Automatic annotation (TrEMBL):
Main function: Alpha-L-fucosidase is responsible for hydrolyzing the alpha-1,6-linked fucose joined to the reducing-end N-acetylglucosamine of the carbohydrate moieties of glycoproteins.
Record protein name field: alpha-L-fucosidase
CC annotations in GO: lysosome
Organism: termite gut metagenome
Family: Belongs to the glycosyl hydrolase 29 family.
InterPro entries: FUC_metazoa-typ, GH, Glyco_hydro_29, Glyco_hydro_29_N, Glyco_hydro_b
EC number(s) stated in the UniProt entry for this protein: 3.2.1.51
Amino acid sequence: MKTKIILIAFLSACWIWQGTAQTDEKERIPLKHGAHYTGKRTDADMKRWREYGLGQFIHWGVYAIPGGQWKGKTSTYAAEWFRSSGLITKNEYDNLYKEFNPVAFNAEQWAKQAKQMGARYMIFTTKHHDGFCLWPSKYTGYTIANTPYKKDIVKELVDAYTAEGIDVYLYFSIIDWNHPGYQAGKGITSEDRKNWENYNPFRNEKEKAGYETFKEFTRNQLIELLTNYPKVKGLWFDGSWDGAWMKEAAWVDVLGEELRAMHPGLIIGSRFRADENGNRHVDTNGDLIDDYDQRFERSLPSTLTETEGNDWDCVMTIPENQWGYHRDWSLSYVKTPYDLIEMLVKANSLDGNFVINFGPDGKGNIRKEETEIAREIGNWMTVNRDAIYGAHHSALEKQDWGYSTQKGDTIYLSVFNKPMNNLLRVKIPRSKNKDMIFVIEKVEFLSTREPALVKGDGKANTYYRDKSGFSYYDIILPEKVQKAGQPFVIVIRLKEINKNNQEAYQQAIT
Ligand code: FHN
């Protein structure tokens, strides 16, 4: 009887194992246009991207003229979608560019403000869904060249930001409401599709020169951007959820390769293309498409597991869902510098970059609330930047007081919730080696570089170990580190010591 039970158990185990192996094999579907590599890119450009920590996004276009309001009415829509708000006719909107004259625009000033805020990269909307181009594209008349302003805004910004040492990425919307060949929507008819492929709105060959199908138009514009602005580091795509675009996996994939070939090191996120089955961001096998994950828009992952080990960025609005300039900021909660700093640290503690969006007005002014936010974040970054730049997830588990980041063997504890007893209890990880333990070797405040004291100040009870072998330190928080409600950073360094070495042990715990 016993032998029979053992035999049945053995056969069941084999069956389960075989089943799993078969499923694994079945799950990998051969793809032509899925991810072309797995794991992170390790070249210098991508390493630099990974160290940015903080970025700035700028949404700017003709939608900044109405700023969410038209003929006395206010739209609660995202301001950059104003053309679809129902408050303005398409014709009215498509003629706004004739008034676009941002006399207050000063690219150097914007770049200096971004620099002071601590941004290391900037993403600029060269063309949003409305199709208006902030560079003088030769493939359409709907550009800055035909506004009273005339000058090439993309060039001004690329030059000014690059001069400040801030890398520039060009936002480009695949959706283009202005181009007659563009067909919106997912369920396009075969007639729509024919237009998308073959649309020719031009009266003669001369007019048609340079204009091909919408696909060719898009390709031409992208090549034009990389040709005109060779200093940029990458392209940031949007609107690629468009049904027609998603059906073009092979064509878009070839285009991506072409763009990469003409601009070595080019960085493209996961919003550019779908695989042949229409899967975006991650392909049918679950592998990330292209260089970093762009799924985190206005939301941060909660855990490292959620990021699936990918590079990622999170783009964040200051009001709830307004990217372009909206005159009325009373429509939703407006984040504070404190909120944004907390998100910035959280993003970096989970290995991502955090990008804060700005929406300048129709004259080229950055609104005063945004200026104030940039200044406050910049002031915090001036003191605490080491906890952000090049710092990623730490060996510590998430703790109630805030977030921790790590660079080499240095760990930064960013404290957002100061305990009322002014004792910051820090839980230290266990060593993998049973004879070893981690102890804190150095503790100091980042703002002052003054050593922090642990409870007992050199006497006993500074250090605890629980039954599971975790160690805890209580760091004493003097009032002065908590300046006017600002989050502060404590730097610690961990050291592994042999717990049987009594001398080292005593030294470490007192
Ligand atoms: O529709 C756009 C929106 O206006 C804005 O540009 C954001 C930025 O990531 N992207 C789209 C929504 O995902």
